[in-house]
Amino acid sequence: MDGTVPATTGSVEPGDLDLLRRIERRDEEAFRRLFRRHAPHAHALALRVVRQAFLAEEAVQDAFLALWRDAGSYDPGRGSVRTWLMGMVHNRAVDLVRREESQRRRVEEPRLVVLEDPGDRVVEELGSAEQGARVRAALANLPPEQRRVIELMYFGGLSQSRIAEHLSLPLGTVKSRTVLAMRRLRDDLVGMER
Amino acid sequence: MRDHERVEVLLAAQALGGLDPEDAELLARERAEHGPGCEECARLERGFALVAGNLSLALDPVPVREGLEDEVVARALGATRGTAVARPVRWRRLSMVAAAAILLVGGWVLRDLTLPERPTGPPPGFLAEAEIVRFEGEGAGTLAVAFRRTGPGAYLLGADLPAPEEGRRYELWLFRDGRPTSGGCFAPENGTVIVPLDAEVGTAELLAVTIEPASCPDAPTTDPILTADPTAI
């Protein structure tokens, strides 16, 4: 749900959906607010996938420009504004990685997300901290072989066939690990949308 | 009731961006067979999309570069008004030349340890906005650097460059306040160089290339063979 988020001063910070509706009407200030709210997470995601600062910046810029251009195409029934935006960031980052893959097959180990004890992590924003801890806990809760597939695919930008090759596994094994992990994550993360 | 197991397997990979092209075709066919109104397909897709969207929260946020917000807003407003953010025409033309050269050249050139981890061709948005300066100096071949005036990110683009002697590399230097810092070592492959740099070329006073030992020293040990002035654009 894209509800409003109470601020500590008693004022009300507009929710993502409100901002998106204003962006549809070409409200620059709403666009800036949404950018400030989500760009750091979008940047972190893009950076993790593409691993170069300026390419990550490119992915973030493209995603926000697409959001500005196509704000009206957002469908609340398919998830929050944040989910939609992060999907666009991820798609663009993966496109950049795949383009490179088609030019030069890489053999080096993709950098993986570090799964730390959620209690050890400090995130500035309380909401993000709680949600981040929950996602990390859900990932940590996966069997290691399933978690590895998810990490390589989502954070490493590898396709299932590349993961199979990388881990020397049958493609069918990668596919079954993927769906088993996603079912479990879905169950663990239910109700996280806001 | 239809069996959704195959669709579920495909949708899980699609949500994570890991679907291979042939499986993407298979998913499209399956979805077509199930029809656009298949509620179970929609439920599965929505559920996995939510998982994927939330996975990004596992990462700590990373602040974006100062000034990026203004640049994105300027590009958005420019697009709305139907006017691209202005770039000098001659650089746009050079960018197109560089893009064409890259398409012709194709594959990748080696990089050394000092260069970034994921070498890739310039993304389309990069070249469209890049400024390009050509190196001048002794020797055969051509070398240029495409860069953005603000922020990190640049590409070295070279053609017909002679290979350095055995055990030697070209090394790029960026001068600021008269002092050189290494931009990394590189070697041409069949005369060609396409190397991404994670350096802020736009803030350098001068660029220089020397031939150095393969160890890629932190300070130049030979005289420059090529120089370029990024401030002259």
Brief description of this entry?
The complex is a heterodimer of chains A (194) and B (233). Chain A is 64% helix and 2% strand. Chain A is an all-alpha fold.
Features:
heterodimer, A: 194 residues, Arc Repressor Mutant, subunit A, 2 domains, two-stranded antiparallel ribbon, 8 helices, B: 233 residues, five-stranded antiparallel β-sheet
3D architecture notes:
- Chain A has 194 residues and is mostly helical.
- In chain A, a hairpin with a 5-residue loop joins strand 1 (5-6) and strand 2.
- A two-stranded antiparallel ribbon of chain A has the order 1-2.
- Chain A contains eight helices and two strands, in the order ββαααααααα.
- Helices cover 64% and strands 2% of the residues of chain A.
- By secondary structure, chain B is of the alpha+beta class.
- Helix content of chain B is 33%, strand content 22%.
- Chain B has six helices and nine strands, in the order ααααααβββββββββ.
- The chains are: A mainly alpha (194), B alpha+beta (233).
- Chains A and B meet through helix 2, helix 3, helix 4, helix 5 and helix 6 of A and helix 1, helix 3 and helix 4 of B.
Mean pLDDT of chain A: 80
The main β sheet of chain B shows up as: 5 strands, antiparallel
In whole angstroms, the N-to-C terminal distance of chain B is 67 Å
The number of helical segments of chain A is 8
Classify the helix fraction of chain B into a percent range. 25-40%
Q: Got a strand count of chain A? A: 2
Overall 3D form of chain A: globular
Hey, which two chains have the biggest interface? A-B, 87 and 61 residues
Pairing-aware structural class of the strands and helices of chain A? mainly alpha
State the shape of chain B: elongated
